[in-house]
Amino acid sequence: MEKITNFFKTFLLYELVKGMALTGRYFFARKITVQYPEEKTPLGFRFRGLHAKRRYANGEERCIGCKLCEAVCPALAIKIEIAEREDGTRRTTQYDIDLYKCIFCGFCEESCPVDAIVETRMFEYYGDKPGDLYYTKQMLLAMGDKYEEQIAKDRLADAKYR
Amino acid sequence: MINVEIDGKLVETENGSTVMDAAHKAGIHIPHFCYHKKLSIAANCRMCLVEVEKAPKPLPACATPATDGMKVHTHSELAVKAQKGVMEFLLINHPLDCPICDQGGECMLQDVAMGYGATASRYSEEKRIVMQKNIGALISTMEMSRCIQCTRCVRFGQEIAGMMELGMAFRGEHAEIMSFVDSSVDSELAGNMIDLCPVGALTSKPFRYTARNWELSRRKSVSPHDGLGSNLAVHVKNNKVMRVTPIENEDINECWISDRDRFSYEGLNVPERLTKPMLKQGGKWLEVEWPAALEYVAHGLSQIVNEHGAAQIAALATPQSTLEELYLLQKFMRGLGSGNVDFRLRQSDFSADGKQVNAPWLGMKIAEINTRDRLLIVGSFLRKDHPLLAQRVRQAVKHGAQANIVHSSNDDLLMPVANKAIVAPNELLNVLAQILKALAVEKKATPDASVQGVEVGSAAAAIAKSLASGERAAVLLGNFAQQHPQAVQLALLAERISALCGAQFGYLGEAANTVGGYLAGAVPYGNGALFIEKRISPRRPKDVVQGMNAAQMLASPRKAYLLLNVEPELDMHDPQQAMTAMRAADMVVALSAYKHHATDYADVLLPIAPFTETSGTFVSSEGRAQSFKGTVKPLGEARPAWKVLRVLGNLLDIQGFEYDTSEEVRDAMLSGHNVADKLNNHVEGVAIQAVMSASDAGMQRVANVPIYSTDAVVRRAASLQKTSDASTPCVKMHGNELRKLGVQSGGAVKVSQGRATVRLEVQADDTMPAGTARVAAGHPATAELGAMFGTITVERA
Predict the structure, then answer these.
(1) b/e for B393-431, b at 16 or more Cβ within 10 A?
(2) pLDDT tens-digit profile of B8-34?
(3) Does position A69 have pLDDT exceeding 80, yes or no?
(4) Nearest residue on chain A to B102, judged by CA atoms?
C-alpha cells in the first residue's frame, strides 16, 4: 500500500508542490526584513555595545581605579594603571580597553561599584587600521560624555532589577 | 594536658591554653580580629564568640581558658548568631570603601564579612568619621574611619616594639587610635603595624594606591640589610618590586621584619640606577656595550698586572654582596695573583687575621637569644643595627633576663637594662677587663695576669655579679665593638668573660653576609681560611695567595681598585683615606647598581643587580645559609655580579670560571661542607695585652652608622630617608663639654678630623661619656671626615 502511495506522490510531484506552497505563502505574506541602516531594530536597555566611562554631573569622572573590572575581565582586555591624585583620591592614570579582545560579556559593568564603566547601545563602530579599536581613557570618557543621557536612562530602567 | 571537645573533635591541649589555641590545634578556624598569637589577649573585638556547654552566654574563644572536659561549639546556632551580631556591629561604622582600600583583597574584615556579614545593613544613620593623622612617612592613616578598635597596633607598640607610640583615646563611639600630640611613629619596627592591622586603617604610605594585591606575585627573598637573614616576600608587578612583606620563620624573624627590610625596596626603582655599562674617556662618561666595557677592564687589569704586579690590584666588597659574588671576587683576585680582597670595610683591627681559624658568628641560634637569662652586650647600637634582634632581647628581658650594656653611647633600648657601663671608646677595653676581674673574683677563679692591674668600678662589679648569677648567659659583641681599633682585644676579653660564666659568646653580624664573607674566603689571609682547597692560583696552585686587608689597601694606595657594591665615602672605616686612595689610583672599576659618587674617580662603571634581581646566598649571623632566586629581571642592562665576575675571569683566562648558574658557584663552595663546622669565634695565638687605663687622648669620636645609611639600597629608599632616623646627623656631646666650648645645644660646631672640617649642628646629650662626641658615619654630611674611631676636634663655629 505504501509503495503505491509513494509511486503516485513521486509521479504527481507532491513534495515539490508542497514546498512551492510554503514559498508562495511567504511570497505574499508581510515582510519582516529591516532595511538596515535606514531602518533599525529596537534595542533593550541592557544591550551590551561599545564601552563608555561616565562622569558625575559635576564633571568628576566616576572611576576610582579599584581594578575590579580588570580583575573580572575574562578576555584580559582591560588595562589600568592607578596613582594617587593630588587631592589624595585614587584615580586611574591609564584605562584602556582592547576591543579586539573584548567579548562584550558585560562583567566589567556588573563589577563596577560606581557605575563608571558601562556598555552602551552603540554598536556601529569600526577601525580603519590596526590599533583603532584600542580604546583609551580619553576615548571612553568622550563616549560617556556623548551618550550620557541615554546611558543614564538605561541605568534607571535597569535599576529595579539590580 | 587537658582534653577539650571542639565541634565534636577531641583535642588534647596544654594547661592554661585558651579555647582559641585548642581550636587551632584541632584545625578549626574561629573568626577573630584582635587576637594575634604574638600579642597579649585583648578580647575586645568579640568576633570569636563561641558556645560553651553549661555557660549561659557565648564566650570569647581567645580569652576563655580551656578546662578539662569542656565542650565547645564554634558553629552552633548560638555561636553563629553571636558572631553575625558582632559582625553587624563592626560594620555599622566601617565605611565599606573596599574598592578604593589598599587592604581590599587581603582584608580580614572583608573575608570574615563574606562568611558572617549580612547582605544589607539595617543601619541607616550616619557613620562616624575619624580624621586622619600624620604619623610619619611610612604608615598612612588616611582612612582611620576604617578602624575597628582591635588595638593590635597599640599592643604591638607596647609589647614588641617596646614603645607605646599609638594609643586609643576617648571612649565608645568616639574611641580612636592616635599618636601622642603631633608626634610621628618612629619605631624601627613600625611597619609591622601595617601587616597587623586587620582592616585598611593603617596602610603602607609608599605603596598607597600603586597596585592591588591580586595583581602582585609574591616571591621569596632574604634581607641583605642585617645579619639576621629575615625571610621576605617580595611582591612583584610588571617586573617591578611593589612592596615587601615578611615570610613567617619562627627561627629567624618570627612574623616581623624591620622597616629597613620592608621599605628599602624603594631604593631599587630610583632614576639613579645604573642601566648601562659606562666608560670614562677623555674625562667624559660614555655609555658602552658590555663587551667593550669588560674588554676594557680585562685589558686594564692585565696591563697593571704586567707592569706593576698583581699586588697592585685590590678588591673591596660590601658584606651585603651575595656569597657567590664574594667567592668569585676572591677567586678572580687570587687568579690574578693578588690576595688583596676584603669585605670587612668598616673594621679597623685586623690583628686576628690568619689566627682566627674559622668564621666568627653569633655563637648560638638566633632563637636562643629569647631563652638567655643574662646578657652582656658590648658596643652595639642594638636597636638601630639589629632591630629584630633587639626585639628578641626585649622578649628575653620581659621573661626575666638581665641585660647588661657596655657601650659608648647610652641609647634607649626600650627595655629595662640591669646594668650599664657607658664609657669613652678607648675605655671599653678597660671596662671589659674590670668585668673579667670582678667575675673571676665572683667565680673564685684567678683573674688573668693581664687584668690584674685594673681597678674594678661599681658598674663593672654589678655587671659581673649579674653574669655570675645566671645560668644561660650570652656575651655579644656589636658592630661598634667589631669596628673598634682594639676589636680583637675586646673579643678576647669577652671570650674570657663568657668562658668564666659559661656563657655563649658571639658577634652580631653587621650585614647579610658578614659570616658568608669569611666562608667565601673574601679575606686577605690564607692559611686559616675556609675553603682553601678550592682556590686557584696559577703560580702556587696549592697555596693561597695572601694579601692586604681593607685598611692596608687604602693606607698604601694600589694602582687599581675593584669595588663591588662599595661606595668608599660611605662604606669604609676611614672614608677620607679611602677617597685619597681612589683618586690616586690609575684604574677604579666600580661594580655598582647605582650611578653614585664613583663618577668622580672611577674609570668604568659596571651595572650590577641588587639583591632582588640576582640569585644568591646569604649566610646569616647564626650560620644559616639561605639561597634565594632573583625576584625580578635586572633593570636595563644590569647583570648579576656573579655573571660579570665570571666573564671577567674568562676574559683573563683564569681557571675555574666555567659556572653557568649561581647554584653551581654556591655548590663549588658549600657542597661537602657543613657550614656549622666552619663557625668558631676562637682566636688562636693572640695574647690578651695588659689593660691600662686610657690616657687622655682628646675628644674621642663615637661613630654609629645610622639605621637608614647602612647600604646603597637603603640610602636611596625615599620614604625611609624622610623618617627621623634618617635626619642629618648632629654632633652629640655631654652638656659640660658644650659649656666648655661655649656652644648652646642646637647651635653649630665645626668638626675636624684629619684634613677635613664639616659644620654640623650640636646637641647636648648628658648620657654621653665625658670627652666623647657622637658623629655618625656613613652619611654624606660626615663623609669627608676620617676614621670612625679616634680623636676628633669639635670647635665653636
Answers:
(1) bbbbbeeebbbbbbbbbebebbbebbbbbbbbbbbbbbb
(2) 999 999 999 999 999 999 999 999 999
(3) yes
(4) A66
Cβ of B99 within 8 Å of Cβ of A71? The answer is no
ipTM of the complex: 0.83
Question: Is-contact B591 B299, C-beta < 8 A?
Answer: no
Let me know: does B19 contact B28? Beta carbons within 8 Å. Answer: no
B286 SS3 class: strand
pLDDT in tens, B534-566: 444 444 444 567 889 999 999 999 999 999 999
Compute the C-alpha angle B215/B219/B221, nearest 5°. Answer: 145
pLDDT the model gives residue B291 = 96
For residue B491, which of B501, B503, B506 has the smallest C-alpha distance? B506
Contact check, Cβ <8 Å, A66/B210: no
With CB atoms and an 8 Å threshold, state whether A67 touches B215.
Answer: yes
Query: What dihedral angle (degrees, nearest 10) is formed by the CA atoms of B747, B751, B756, B758?
Result: -20
pTM of the shown model: 0.91
Among A61, A62, A68, A85, most B C-beta atoms within 10 A, so best to mutate, is A68
* Mean pLDDT to the nearest integer, B198-220: 95
CA distance B104 to chain A (A): 9
Residue B446 confidence class, pLDDT cut points 50, 70, 90: confident
Q: What is the pLDDT of residue B521?
A: 86
CA-closest candidate to residue B118, choices B81, B78, B73: B81
Evaluate whether B34 touches B42 at the Cβ level (below 8 Å).
yes
DSSP string covering B695-763: P--SSEEE----GGGSSHHHHT-HHHHTSGGGSPP-EEE-HHHHHHHT--TT-EEEEEETTEEEEEEEE
Rounded Cα distance between B203 and B180, Å, is: 19
In this prediction, residue B544 carries a pLDDT of 67
> What values do phi and psi take at B336, rounded to 5?
-75, -20
| CB contacts < 8 A (A, B) | 28
